[in-house]
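Residues pack. Consider this:
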Amino acid sequence: MPDLLIPSYENGLPQLALFDLDGTLIDSAPDLADAVDFMLLESGFSAAGEALVREWVGNGAPMLIKRALAHALELEEPQQVAEAQFQSAASIFYDRYDEYCCVRTRIYPGAEELLQHWRDQGVAMGIVTNKPARFTQPILQALKLEQYFAISLSGDSLPVKKPDPTPLLHACEALQAQPGSTLMIGDSINDVLAARHANMKIACVTYGYNHGEDIRDANPDWVMDSLIELK
């Protein structure tokens, strides 16, 4: 456990730990890249490849799709993608990812060990992800991770998603935890912003999806190369 975590929480443990999913607990980029490339090829474009898709993940499926289309169309901003083209491509992406969302997706080393340890220590845990619920639950079930979480909030569970703090605060209210006793664990600037606006501490992993930027530049409270460092 990082030395700084001990004075931040009673008994050195948060009352509630909220985890981002993609890029924090699981490496989903291979399956996301498969769906993105299938979508692009079916739409008449060239495949983007996993390396690029890793840089596009982190703001939910609609933004991932728009970033891929903007790249293919050589547009400066994802928002410039025409709505009709987005809807057509999104249908292809969702159908593909529905079928192949957990083929090569894997749990990061150390993640389940931390989950088991904190469960044994009585720490309540939840998922707060921007991923649509239609994908979140099947992946959690396939990887046998749902057993650890008292609540799971996806990108479409509430009217807003990260970086808005509402999902984090909703989880706190549902599990009767104070934000000051809660720790958010993520991998991107969206996780940092959501935690800051919710007045809770934020720990970030270095290996996740942060659009190619060093997560240290977002100034989280703690940065680690493996979740096992929180044990």
